[in-house]
Predict the 3D structure of the following.
Amino acid sequence: MRPNDMPPEEFRRFSTQVIDWVEDYLDEMSDLPVFPQVKPGDVVDALPDAAPVHGEPMEDILDDFKEIIVPALNHWNHPRFNAYFSVSASKPGILAEILASAINTNGMLWKSCPGHVELEQVVMSWLRQWLGLPEAFFGEILDTASTSTLQAIAAARVSAAPETRLKGAPRDLIVYTSEQAHSSVEKGAMSLGMGLEQVRKIAADAAFRMIPAKLAKAIQHDRAAGLRPCCIVSTVGTTAVTAIDPVAEIQAIAESEGLWHHVDAAYGGAAAILPEMRWMLQGAERADSLVFNPHKWLFTPIDCSAFFCRRPGALREAFSLVPPYLRTEKDSRAVNYMDYGIALGRRFRALKLWFVMRYFGREGVSTIIRRHNLWARQLAGLISEDSRFELSAPVTLSLVCLRYKGTDEDNQRIVDRVNESGTAFLGGSVINGRYILRIAIGNIATTHDDVLRVWDAVRKAV
Amino acid sequence: MRPNDMPPEEFRRFSTQVIDWVEDYLDEMSDLPVFPQVKPGDVVDALPDAAPVHGEPMEDILDDFKEIIVPALNHWNHPRFNAYFSVSASKPGILAEILASAINTNGMLWKSCPGHVELEQVVMSWLRQWLGLPEAFFGEILDTASTSTLQAIAAARVSAAPETRLKGAPRDLIVYTSEQAHSSVEKGAMSLGMGLEQVRKIAADAAFRMIPAKLAKAIQHDRAAGLRPCCIVSTVGTTAVTAIDPVAEIQAIAESEGLWHHVDAAYGGAAAILPEMRWMLQGAERADSLVFNPHKWLFTPIDCSAFFCRRPGALREAFSLVPPYLRTEKDSRAVNYMDYGIALGRRFRALKLWFVMRYFGREGVSTIIRRHNLWARQLAGLISEDSRFELSAPVTLSLVCLRYKGTDEDNQRIVDRVNESGTAFLGGSVINGRYILRIAIGNIATTHDDVLRVWDAVRKAV
């Protein structure tokens, strides 16, 4: 019996209700409208202005969750949530989150929780093998790719300019990325105190891939101007259209120029698990760091960003500051993760990744990912056959970018109509100055029929 | 029926097993040794070198969890986990985490999930009221206090030096904090590209509180040297001994000098909910930002760091970079949290805080916190009566710092013995150059008897 907390029989009753709700929610989700019928402020207006003075019955809390919160959710775990990148909380991942929340460990130091820290080492080693990266890559799990990329640039910076630790960020260090790269590269650099003027956005080719020759030229130009090139961030699966930068060519430039190369495979990394897609990461095995988010396309609940770094000493140089109350005995097998990043507190994220990797196995996840890619190509075929539409970018993975041959406003209205219909939730983007539609396939429960229904909803919206 | 995922009947079976395990774990935890009998590498050695090719039965995964992981856990949710700061995952918080993991939302934009974003606004408003902060404070939930403090310093920086966005971090901006402050202040500044030489550690008084006169003098000294004072970080409940900096006096200096004042109440904030402890945050209502971690002493599972900022425009200036594919319609009631920090992806952390605040109510949490403070004072009384020990710092909240009147090695050996006994898990620190023992009280299930057992274990270890 645990004093002060909810009594055991009450916990059993409500956890049964919660689990039943989860099971029903997941199994019947396909019938729910993906995007809710709400206006800004609806939920705020429906809830009290202040927290209760006295405790409330769990019945009431769960009722409000079902009646006020759920109807205002955009259902990210829905098979026809096709905006941004499609994500999934699979049931093995959910089971792991229940356990992780109850044991409530903090894996900042080996000593702070040996089982947590060592399982993180193990699953990151397993994942490293799935991605074809060599053993030299140190792995840690962070919250998001934004944090992972920021940490990579910080490590690159302190490698190029060790004086940063004491003196602050030099204003002459330059970071290179594609004009198609995720905004997290700019945000990371800006947060780190590198100005936006220290970030070069290299032109991309017609398939939206960074052009290595332009990269090399920009580096030479900066060197000639007395600046210090420091870091290149390439992308395997860009956010707008999932373009795949030529990693090996970029790595060759990084090597000949002595620059840090960070690979942002936050989305695309999942597909690199497939033997036929391994070419995407060719060259990454010699890169300095890589991020891949299992919480995107590897069926693991949010948040779980896998960050790999071949030069962990640079991470320690960028982030370690061990105060006396956190000192523990030295042991080469006892990893103290707090020395490798910003956050001190660290949830037990390894547990859900372990459950997902084991429950589905490499073949299991590969089969699902392979199908998503296939359906994306098939959808692209259907789009090509409809003369009212055009593809806006090559389909490289499971994202399809298209546009109705009309105005930007027409296309925007199509997105709005599909979203208002509740059939699917789509997003848009701007490519070559035109508004386009993005259909991201990637939820574990998505079927071929779901893809066809989305395409149908788009055509109906015209 | 949800394709590809675990079948419903299997999920029902295993979720029942998982919930039963959680209930038994929580209710019988007090009988478990807090710290495990493991050596570095034990867990790594017990697990396969590679992930399985084919999926494995959930039975086997759960068995390995129980047989390999659990015996290697340091039980943070244990009533006699007294190291660092004691934390709690209460059962209402665990129920919320089950729901949050299943709905798997990302609250980066209002449009990305209205119910998630608006509930976060509501609970942060509720919590703001509990802390006595005015409505002008914008609230957001981040992962850890390290991130919150980093974001505060970033906002302070861009306010003092708007050129930072484009040109990078100036090397003449200075951050002030106590020599007793948490290492996250230095790590935050260093990560942001402010060198460690740009951080001043102000001397503390005999009670380990920052000395305002020394702060004022350091600011004058830096101004005279042509440097730009930028930000002060005060602490309400320091990590080593829970000293409480004189927030109002520091705020007066910040105002007269035109500096940003960030209050680190990561631990102490919980006690500020008690009317009799509100004095601790006097002056904070005029500060620029404040962090308080509900995942520490407010019975909310890890991670949940509440970050309040009275100048949200400065946060946007520090972090906003909106790319086209994330643009949504403008509405003053639709908050886009991604513009206020580093991470783009954001778990639904508000749900667990909502469940905890409602289930226990303000009186419920206050009663538990008040008792922890009382027991800490009572323990200090017992220590004073034992001539072999001495108190190392005033007891201000629920942490007791003491030392055996012997060598540092003697004290270190006492900590090791207590931890090896499994009765409790204690930590140490270094204060005034001497190694001390820290007994942190703060788990929801801790009883007065637990506190006496810990004290007994310490005396036996002598």
DSSP finds 15 helices and eleven strands in chain A.
